[in-house]
Amino acid sequence: MMVNWLKRVLRPIYAPIVIQYRHQKAFRQQQEKIRHQVVACYESDQPIKVVIGAGLTAFDGWIATDIPAFDILKHEHWAILFQPNTIHRMLAEHVFEHLTEAQFQDFLRVARSYLAKDGRIRIAIPDGNHPDPAYIERVRPNGTGEGAHDHKVLYTCDKITRLLDHEGYEYELVEYFDAGGQFHQIDWDNADGYIKRSAEN
User: 115: which residues sit within 8 A by CB, 6+ positions away?
Assistant: First the structure.
């Protein structure tokens, strides 16, 4: 009886400590898994290809990352997990609409330091020029679609290219609607990053 009573009294004190310890342990394990995969690429002379905000997504030959283990807004995470100028491909499907424009620009600046000489970043985001009002309602900030409550920006081809130009990136738009609602598409290679939510796929 005394032991049970003591546990009830002490639980509010030790429970948060135990929870935090478990979270920290999981965080360290996730970062160690990423580091192990990166080192394996270095040692086997394989290109380093990284999926940002992967969630449950997994592709052969790609390193799946997500927060909290890899927070692209924390420069120290980049430094812990990767060496400069070594990442050949980065893939982010429906990630950057969850950041502000300033945060996206910060990503572009730090990512440049870690891209290999011939490195590429493939970005897929909801299209603010989509002619279907129901689509726009789903994907706009605070929209009705899944996850849209956390959307910060609804990008268009003009808005995204303005930011890429500002940060000195070369780019190629592969699927997009223009300001008049006309769809444009060019051939592109899934090997540079598979985008599920695309006309191609």
Answer: 85, 87, 90, 121
Tell me the pLDDT tens digit for each residue of 100-156.
999 999 999 999 999 999 999 999 999 999 999 999 999 999 999 999 999 999 999
Q: How far is CA 58 from CA 33, 49, 70, 121, in A?
A: 14, 12, 16, 17
Angle, helices 101-114/157-166, rounded to nearest 10 degrees:
50
Buried b (16+ CB within 10 A) or exposed e, 75-106: eebbeebbeeeebbbbbbbbbbbbbebeebeb
| DSSP 8-state secondary structure symbol assigned to residue 54 | -
Whether pTM > 0.85 for this model: the answer is yes
